[in-house]
Amino acid sequence: MTTTYSALQIDTIPDRPRSVEIARRPEIRRAASPEGLRRGEPGYLRASLALLAAGLASFNALYCTQALMPTLTASLHASPAQAALTVSAATGVLAVSILPASVLSERFGRGRVIVASALAATLLGLLLPLAPGLGWLVAGRALQGLLVAGVPATAMAWLAQEIHPRDLPRAMGLYVAGNTVGGLLGRLIPSGVLQFAGWRLALGIDMAFALACAILIATVIPAERRFTPKRLRLSSELRTMAAQWRDRRLAGLFGVGFIFMGVFVSLYDFLGYRLNSTFGLPMSAIGLVFLLYLFGTLASAQAGRMVGHFGRDKALLVGAAMAIVGMPVIAAGQLWLMLPGVALFTYGFFTVHSVASGWVGALAPASRGEASGMYLACYYLGSSIIGYLSGHVMHAFGWWGLVGWLVALIGIGCLFAGSVSRASHRLQRLS
């Protein structure tokens, strides 16, 4: 590896032997790579592996009860809305914890927050199968949402801080892939175990896998080399967030995240009930439906290309259109039509999310951390609030009522997306 120096460092090095001596000192060597870890360095591989495991552990822990909901309804005599609380409690507390976790990471270090968050959330997960009833399970899931918040709040910022800009997209892609696969395994593992055991063992085995991933993070994550603690000022942070809400484009994107994530989680929360009651599928087969998440992985990879061809505003509306077109197909009474509808909706949702989250960062370059944190807070708050309300709609009006409710919400999401597009075009004309 070639050692590089800034102009100031070169001016202060009197001769070559002295420069060699300085280059061998760890504290100078850390400063000598100001742009971050490069692909091919051992630290880059360890960083990528650690953040891949972070996605696997955190998103597995976050959604570990979603595939169990029909079984929880039968075993714990809970309504669909009550069973949905095992997901909504975790995502709701996560939503309000993201910004505080992000602020704490600026003071104590992002790497420490990631490791502590992943280990604490997955260790708690091992206790969840011991819950004596639904109330205790929901309370434990709420605490788990609080503990896991440090990973999504800081992981992307940690990568941007420690990885060289040229190699950042690949590392970021691994982390996003870990998120998708972690969420997928959080559904597949418990639903697979349900084939031969109850929900308690299914949840325990899943959380044991998540804990193994968390231990891997703590083992391989490299020490932060470019972190500088910041003095936190609450008044300054609040002024920044208030200014973001006054920007119609940012506020609209926050609304897009809230609505579309709420619809997405609602659909997957209650899809299992439909597949079990109407089509008679066993829980192991219902779990395989979550493989349709892979269409989301494909959409995320293609979203950048779509933005390049059509622009952010049109790409956002195209994704929203895919989501709303998929809903009537999902409502069909034939399984062979329903599953392609879920795939189309999933592709559209992840297109919307990828475009919106990237657009938020582009609109707030001076306060990217706060803007991204606010977007994620709205995103997960939508998951919690709309997911819970959808349970009541399902209980009162059945599957058709739920689909109508979700279509109406997507319509509201499209209005938010349209407002962002109009505000963007207006500012372009003025400039």
TrEMBL record:
One of its GO terms (molecular function) is transmembrane transporter activity. PROSITE patterns: MFS. Its main location: membrane. Pfam families: MFS_1. The keyword Nuclease does not apply. It is found in: Cell membrane. Keywords: Cell membrane, Membrane, Transmembrane, Transmembrane helix, Transport. InterPro entries: MFS, MFS_dom, MFS_trans_sf. It is a multi-pass membrane protein. The chain crosses the membrane at residues 43-63, 83-101, 113-136, 142-160, 172-189, 201-223, 250-271, 283-303, 315-338, 344-366, 373-391, 397-420. GO terms for cellular component: plasma membrane. Residues 43-422 form the Major facilitator superfamily (MFS) profile domain. PANTHER family: BLL2771 PROTEIN (PTHR43271), INNER MEMBRANE TRANSPORT PROTEIN YNFM (PTHR43271:SF1). Belongs to the major facilitator superfamily. This is MFS transporter. It comes from Brooklawnia propionicigenes.
